[in-house]
Amino acid sequence: MPRPKKPRSVNFLPSVTYFKPRGVPLSTLKEVSLTLDEIEALRLADFKGLDQVKAAKKMKISQPTLQRVLAKAHQKMAEALVLGKAIKVGGGEVIMPFGRGRGIGGGRGRMGGPFAAGPGGVCVCVNPECKNEVPHTAGQPCYQMKCPKCGSPMIRRR
């Protein structure tokens, strides 16, 4: 029996979670799925330019684990670009800060979780310095809103 996967710390929630090649109908398109931890690894190492040791510390994983995550993410990105596949972002065993919870996929699925729509609740700014709260509007997911005070993403609090 394999060892259980250690959840990775993710400090980034992408606002766009689907990319597709222009001019290709969705019905004929194949997808490549990038997990939230793979996107976080790409963001820290490739976009922000952190070395792998610093990026691994931010994600609370070892450097060899970060290297494996990056290699897998690079392979998936190359597959999507070379073969003209769509890229779907989401899922993975992650821990999100600022009270976003823990779980597979970070709760962005259609069947519930901390981002699920429903009556009541509030949308809370993810910026720990702001912590602005706005009453939840039914039919509008909190993660699609921006904080009116600071412009950071919002998340749902039950």
Kindly describe this structure.
The protein has three helices and nine strands. The chain has 158 residues and is of the alpha/beta class. It is 26% helix and 20% strand. It has helices at residues 36-47, 52-59, 63-83, and strands spanning 8-9, 18-19, 31-34, 86-89, 93-96, 101-104, 122-125, 133-135, 154-157. The protein has a three-stranded mixed beta sheet with strand order 1-5-6, with no helix packed on it. A three-stranded mixed beta sheet has the order 2-4-3. The termini are far apart. It folds into two domains: 1-95, Arc Repressor Mutant, subunit A (Orthogonal Bundle); 109-158, no CATH class. β5 (93-96) and β6 form a beta hairpin. α1 crosses α3 and α2 crosses α3. Residues 99-118 have low confidence and may be disordered.
Strands, total number: 9
Runs with pLDDT <50, length 5+? 99-118
Helix content: 25-40%
CATH top-level class of the largest domain: Mainly Alpha
